[in-house]
Amino acid sequence: MLAEHREHFKRAALQDGRDSSANEPGTLRFELIEDKDNPNRFYLNEAYEDEAAFDLHCQGPYFKAFFDEISAYAQGPTWLIKGTVTS
Known about the structure:
The chain is an alpha+beta fold. The chain has a single domain (about 5-70), classed as Alpha-Beta Plaits (2-Layer Sandwich). The protein has 3 helices and 2 strands; from the N terminus they run αββαα. It has helices at about 5-25, 50-60, 60-70; strands at about 25-35, 40-50. The protein is globular, with a radius of gyration of 13 Å. The model has no long low-confidence stretch (mean pLDDT about 95).
């Protein structure tokens, strides 16, 4: 994203993480990671108890509010990698 949107994105992502972790059962982890080489690139590392918890998050108000807020300036690419926590 453009540098001018960086802090706004961080606030929105961290708010989504706080709200989701506090209010959505099954949210195990929600981390915002800043790219070491490009401070305007971020990764969200999220973990959920199961597929139902992930679906609940995707349909919930915090997910919607986050994407409503960042949709005007967020730039791709976007990836979604699903897996199972083994440890």
